[in-house]
UniProtKB/TrEMBL annotation:
It comes from the Bacteria. It is a multi-pass membrane protein. PANTHER family: TRANSMEMBRANE PROTEIN, TRANSPORT PROTEIN YDIK-RELATED. Belongs to the autoinducer-2 exporter (AI-2E) (TC 2.A.86) family. One of its GO terms (cellular component) is plasma membrane. It holds the Pfam family AI-2E_transport. Keywords: Cell membrane, Membrane, Transmembrane, Transmembrane helix, Transport. The chain crosses the membrane at residues 12-32, 38-56, 68-91, 154-181, 215-238, 244-265, 277-294, 314-339. Its main location: membrane. This is AI-2E family transporter. It is found in: Cell membrane. InterPro entries: AI-2E-like (IPR002549).
Amino acid sequence: MALENKIPGKPLDLFIRAGLLGFLVVYCYGIFKPFIGLLLWSVILAVALYPLHAMIARKMGGRQGYAATVLVLAILLSVLVPTTLLAISFADSTIEFVKQVHNGTLQVPAPRDSVATWPLVGVKLHALWEEAHEDIGIVVEKFEPKIGIVTKQVLGYAASAGTAILKFLISLVVAGIWMAYASSGHAAAQAIAKRMAGPEKGDDLVKLSTATIRAVAQGVIGIACIQALLLGAGFILVDIPAAGVLALVVLLIGIMQIPAMLISLPTIIYVFSTNDSTTVAVMFAVYSIVAGSVDNVLKPLILGRGVDAPMPVILLGALGGMATGGIIGLFLGSVMLALGYQLFMAWVYSDNGKEKA
């Protein structure tokens, strides 16, 4: 008996259609995969920057394209130079540190006696620190497998710094295109949301997504980036070692909502103890205190509505994104995980027929 007689026509037809559709989706995904992160980041930038773009467009008589061009060029001029300097500093200091560790030329200062009194780890840490101070080569040889893994990851982050800048530039240009055609893009987003969540909830889904992206991108990541750029520029001007690494740490603790003074205060002490010019040290101290406290001024302005996603969600997104996608994943991961959390919680409360508290 023929195969078509054994299998009913409609199920077979459905199976073939589903197979062809699945093949098309998988194939298109394979082509689109290298650009997913870049396009997602460009959409995030476009949504976060659109209020500023709309204000510029109103002043330019509604010229959306000109407004997008002016905004993109202004951001490039104000952000590109310090970001490039910090990325170069981060890469150079990281590579130099790894070379010194492997060559055994790294100079480790002697530990203070008070380290041995620290609870739980004090005695062992003091002994290891003392051993590293006397001969770093012995410590490197003892922990060579673990150091090899860590240094490989660190070098990967250093190499990704340049790639992250290039991706940021491309994403910013693409975001300018999204903003220039914001009306049609918003209509397309509403149509997709209505198709996914239904006509009644489609608009709410778009509003929730937009509000979450702007809150996290502007109120958390944006402020952390501003602080990292300001303090990083100061670190470079007074020639603090590993300025790029310190700026990245400022960025991380900024996302974690930890005060940047945790990093700026030790650098102030370092400048006062090593710089011959008291005037330079005082100017740097004042600058660092102001730059380290800028979040106290910006947060009330930007975060008037607050960020609904819990900070652990944003932090996990940032760390997980950095582990999987490098520097650019630091920003992308925190926004996307916060957005996913908000959409999931909205679905949970909607399914229970309750309003979110």
